[in-house]
Sequence to fold (220 residues):
Amino acid sequence: MTWTGKGCLVALAILFAWRVEDFAEACSCSPAHPQQAFCNSDVVIRAKVIAVNKVDVGNDVYGNPVKQVKYDVKLIKMFKGPVMDIEAIYTAPISALCGVTLDIEGQMEYLITGKLESDGNVHVTLCDFIEPWDAMSPIQKKSLPERYQMGCDCKIVRCETIPCALHADDECLWTDWVLENHISGPQAQHFACIQRRNGSCAWYRGAAQPKKDFLDIEEP
Fold:
């Protein structure tokens, strides 16, 4: 083999390795509190998946067909979204592109958050909050949609290292990561960050709706 041929093979190997590394690192998400996921999503539904197919959704810049996974769903309840029935959700075909894998036996109910695309389709990724309904806490379920909506103007600040602090009155400090070593700790499971009448925000825990004056607030 000539030096030129060897050089081409080396260049292709390097390019392939770079593409694989880039591909593997393509999906990266910042953890979000369930309330943040609710507030930042166009669509929040409770649904079952009843079928799955791979579908063409257009072409890339090189003219190659782009495929997505289409999950047909049975809508149980819509907590947030357009005034229409949602019969399917779409996701990338592999996890490296943030594609979501869901149970397709129709037995598991999910809470699904996602984005409404310009074509009217709902798109979901690994960065969205998608949780089996039975795995959610009673307070998480009860917070949909009113309680989370009450705090959509608040900012939930994730504490990554101690010490951490708030910098504004409209912030709630989320400490599950540093105190529990995972993001599904007590604050994610049992608290909502609620805005009070004076514009400040604070964590609230309880089965009842917060009082208007927010005198019954509990701190985590």
Summary: The first helix runs from residue 3 to 24. The helical segments are 3-24, 34-40, 138-142, 146-149, 176-180, 186-190.
